[in-house]
Amino acid sequence: MAEYKIIKMEGRAKRAEFKTVHGTVQTPVFMNVGTAAAIKGAVSTLDLKEIGCQIELSNTYHLHVRPGDELIHKLGGIHKFMNWDRPVLTDSGGFQVFSLAGLRKIKEEGVTFHSHVDGRIIFMGPEESMRIQSHLGSTIAMAFDECPPAKAERSYVQPSVDRTTRWLNRCASELKRLNALEDTVNKDQLLFGINQGAVYDDIRIEHAKVISELELDGYAVGGLAVGETHEEMYRILDSTVPFLPKDKPTYLMGVGTPVNIVEAVDRGVDFFDCVYPSRNARHGALYTHKGRLNIKNAKYACDDRPIEEGCQCPACKNYSRAYIRHLMIAGEMLAMRLCVLHNLYFYNHMMEEIRGALDEGCFAGFKKKFISDFESGNV
Ligand SMILES: [Zn+2]
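Above: inputs. Below: predicted complex with zinc ion.
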């Protein structure tokens, strides 16, 4: 069983510590996304340590399709497979099933769909998702849910959320059974439940109350950043998060921009993940405290400053904007690697700054300055 301890609060913002079998996580935390057990852009687990990553996130669906969770189980689990001794969170596969996979059929038992790699038919339900995640042996497993589109009608969302609740109960029983098996890689595997309900506050609140009654290790807000506006997202966090257990981690899935993260911390969220920093980096869009810059821009051709003055990432400590721009234009793989290292460092370091501000009791002032600097675009 994990231990979650709130160290300090400012308004609804939480500064906490989460002890797991793979080490203690300081929150608020940003989980670095390694879809197929690797960060896209040639960034290894050794690099992750250097850029301050506390938790790596891998995708159940991708690893199930390739190389297969049974293979990873045989090799001793995902930690050993990718040489990473800190916490790993695996998603349930649900999001990919509903967004990536081709033709699919949802039933009470689960979902039948075609693999996006080779088209073969796969069935995944709550039990299958738990078995795959148990094979992987991640620190935190996510419950299998349906993520309805933001614009879905109430008449679709309500029955979907009810089914997600029944699936959550099945996930909890199955994980309990799996954790007791002899050949289970991580017998202390934790389970986070997921709140759904699209943009309907009342459905979200009711669902939050129902899932809070289960003794889970953490609670996520899912189904946001899927097409609704930022204002809608903040409104849903304002209405829903107060109904999730405060004494458990609160995870906002797939969000978001630096400003989104600071706003969500203010609303009580303390776990985040997002592909923005790594995906944007691969296209040369780099984060600084004064906004985003595009390194491919001609004005950086002769710029011998680092991406951001004072940044302690491996790219900024050693290379200039001019050099990185040249690598990007020349299509050198090193360009992507340096850009991804910088952006992930920026996110991890931003969380460290947020934690520092909460520790000092000055998060409100930090938030105001952070957002105004970031939006100044004065790069
Ligand atoms: Zn940097």
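The chain has a mean pLDDT of 95.
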